[in-house]
Amino acid sequence: MHAEGRDAAAIAARVEAFVREVVAPYEQDPRCGAHGPSDELVQELRGLARDAGLLTPHIFDDGSHLSHRGTAQVLIASGLSPLGPLAVNVMAPDEGNMYLLGKVGTPELKARFLDPLVSGRARSAFFMTEPAEENGAGSDPSMMQTTAVLDGNHWVISGRKAFITGAEGASVGIVMAKTEAGASMFLVDLPDPAIRIDRVLDTIDSSMPGGHAIISIDGLRVPADQMLGEPGEGFKYAQIRLAPARLTHCMRWLGGCIRANEIATAYACKRQAFGKPLVDHEGVGFMLADNLIDIQQARLMIDWCADVLDTGALGTVESSMAKVAVSEALFRIADRCVQVMGGAGVSGDTIVEQIFREVRAFRIYDGPSEVHRWSLAKKIKRDWMASA
Q1: Is the pTM value of this prediction over 0.85?
Q2: Comparing C-alpha atoms, which of 94, 93, 117, 113 is closest to residue 104?
Q3: Where are the strands (E) in 21-112, listed by range?
Q4: Keywords in UniProt for this one (predicted)?
Q5: How far is 380 from 55, CA to CA, in rounded Å?
Q6: pLDDT number for residue 137
Q7: b/e for 58-90, b at 16 or more Cβ within 10 A?
Q8: Distance between CA 39 and CA 94 in Å, rounded?
């Protein structure tokens, strides 16, 4: 997007109109499958966004970004349809990978790996999580088993990864592995014969192209100059990526829950039962009232955390708070929408059923609520001991 169009509210308004009028009609497209929309559909939607001047709208032609607060306005608007973030190229994992590459990548790596992502012509995957049955890294990244060994001018990477979103069909990969210096990150071209997709998991969510895969990496050779940043700084870079990424998930799925609540509200106002509209029954009307409260609280939490990130702070504590509070509020909203709509809420006739599934999964990815609470509790103890 051209740098002169930096008014976040105006961009968000255009994105909202585009998602409601152009993207939402594709929600029943048969190319939306159990493992996400097909790449054919994604590219068709991105072509429409490109024609509308709305592709990757939070990043400008000069490489600068909207503020986190401004990004929130745009991403909430994009999330009004599960296809919206894909269409305008602000979906995970690409959005987080673009952010990390923009912060850490050299000019050469940006030209090779970042530019295709910003243009919307490529997808990416972030290879960090490992299989639980092999005692690999999950919520505890220090358990990482994947290794990278220097061999001349190449790193040789071997290991297993799990729940790797979008690996099938991705062109750019960021692989996290242990080196002698500690956890490090590497940029790789995909596909590569040394990276094998063992299977794509069947999961309750279905919004991300390529689904979530189990991966084997066997002797992957990566040129030394494709290490992202410095050796041993992988955990630091993961936090640079994950703190804003947790928040952008909140933004997108808040948009989805706003849409679900609109659909449930329309249903409750039109549907008659026991001589009056459903909304006039307190059991239903109060659920919709609680939805409005949770929506507003989620907005405030997102804006607060975005303001912290806009100061230049890493924001890990604040993003943990936001991830817990917003993901759980959104699940309450989606659950109430299903309940208000009864049988219609559990069918695929509206997008409400999918949004319910997606926000349930959101309570787990990018760290389950329990891990974030545990991390916050450790900080409480540290702060108390330091002041005692």
Answers
A1: yes
A2: 113
A3: 32-33, 36-37
A4: FAD, Flavoprotein, Oxidoreductase
A5: 42
A6: 85
A7: bbbeeeeebebbbbbbbbbbbbbbbbbbbbbbb
A8: 14
| N-to-C CA span, the chain | 52
| Distance of alpha carbon 354 from alpha carbon 360, whole angstroms | 10
The distance of Cα 80 from the centroid of its chain, to the nearest Å, equals 14
Rg of the chain in Å (alpha carbons): 21
Q: Where are the domains of the chain?
A: 8-91, 124-232, 235-387
- For residue 358 the two structure tokens come to 């997606």
Q: What is the pLDDT of residues 297-343, one digit of tens each?
A: 999 999 999 999 999 998 999 999 999 999 999 999 999 999 999 99
Structural tokens at position 212:
């979530």
Structural contact between residues 242 and 92, judged by C-beta atoms closer than 8 angstroms: no
- Residue range 87-99, pLDDT digits in tens: 999 999 999 999 9
Are β-strands 172-179 and 124-127 bridged in parallel, bridged antiparallel, or unpaired?
A: parallel
Identity at 288, one-letter amino acid code = L
- Write down the architecture of domain 124-232 according to CATH: Beta Barrel (2.40)
CA dist 15 and 97 (Å) reads 22
* pLDDT score for 1: 57
Indicate the CATH number for domain 235-387.
1.20.140.10
Give phi and psi for 89, each to the nearest 5: 70, 50
pLDDT in tens, 107-132: 999 999 999 999 999 999 999 999 99
Identity of residue 222:
V
Residue owning tokens 């071209």 = 189
pLDDT band at 5 (very low <50, low <70, confident <90, very high): low
| Same-fold call for 124-232 versus 235-387 | no
174 with 127: CB under 8 angstroms?
A: yes
Handedness of CA 258, 264, 267, 271 (dihedral sign): negative
331: tokens are 């699940």
- Rounded to whole angstroms, the Cα distance separating 205 from 334 reads 14
Is residue 139 very low, low, confident or very high in pLDDT (cuts 50, 70, 90)?
Answer: confident
State yes or no: cis peptide before 141, omega within 30 of 0.
Answer: no
User: What one-letter code names the amino acid at 206?
Assistant: S
> 34 to each of 206, 348, 363, how far by Cα in Å?
5, 13, 19
Q: What is the token pair recorded at 183?
A: 């956890």
Asked whether the predicted pLDDT for residue 4 surpasses 60, the reply is no
